[in-house]
Backbone:
């Protein structure tokens, strides 16, 4: 097959690019935190899912999964397995391909691909090329944020 006839690859999502940059700079913990927290927020937005504030992430994976969510919860749970040690201060180095591949697969899920509110964006205070300014935390008040 002629390579000239192949369509160009789709542009990489800003969150994936930022995770890649953090991994390259040696910030595995920051990359994992960014990847999982962004994916969780987007999961909630894509599926109109707002868990009760007292639910843990385990509760979300155990009680909040619906059949219309397809494979997205499985991929989010994979990201969580990378996130959990970092969340509790047990920073570990993660093979960049594992994190990036799982993140890409997550965003290739139909509900996430077709949701225009998710593209493109980055978490709080990170510049997005299509944004007119830095994104604010108020843009998604339902996502639980940690106190500074």
Residues:
């Amino acid at each position: 097959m002629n390579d000239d006839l192949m369509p160009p690859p789709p542009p990489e999502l800003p969150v994936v690019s930022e995770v890649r940059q953090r991994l390259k700079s040696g910030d595995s913990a920051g990359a994992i935190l960014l990847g999982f927290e962004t994916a969780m927020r987007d999961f909630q937005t894509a599926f109109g899912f707002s868990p009760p504030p007292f639910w843990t992430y385990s509760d979300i994976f155990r009680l909040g999964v619906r059949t219309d969510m397809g494979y997205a919860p499985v991929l989010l749970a994979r990201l969580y397995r990378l996130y959990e040690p970092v969340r509790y201060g047990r920073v570990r180095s993660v093979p960049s391909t594992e994190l990036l591949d799982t993140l890409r697969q997550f965003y290739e899920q139909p509900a996430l691909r077709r949701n225009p509110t998710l593209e493109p964006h980055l978490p709080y205070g990170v510049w997005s090329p299509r944004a007119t300014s830095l994104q604010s935390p108020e843009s998604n008040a339902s996502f639980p944020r940690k106190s500074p």
